Amino acid sequence: MTDKDLEQRHLDTLDRDLGRLSSLDRATSYASRPFISFGISLIFIILAGLVALYLFGNSSNTVVIVIAAGFGAYMALNIGANDVANNMGPAVGANALTMGGAIAIAAIFESAGALLAGEMLSQPLPKGLLLLKACKRHQSLSGQC
Question: Does the predicted TM-score (pTM) go above 0.85?
């Protein structure tokens, strides 16, 4: 480095250039923030499709199953976001919780609910729910149940 590089006019120019770069860095960070959540969602949907492909790759309708898994993952994200918005929205709006705290609580309890109670929701309906006697009586009259 020479003595001319340390002159005041060179240092002012350097400060201005560094100031522009830091402003550009902040703007880029702010502008790319919405793409992060979209990217994570897209990775989840693709991962669901890949898991379906791995599990059902030998079946005759693999493409339909992979597409259905992708749509199912997309719907699961939407349903989960709706549940979280309904439950955490008032608390965040009243400043009782921060956004990060609400997301952490929601992630823990939504996952726990799906893991602990999800199997019960996927079991078939109980046998006594449908009144078979009424169906048989209707079938004898109209020929259809």
Answer: no
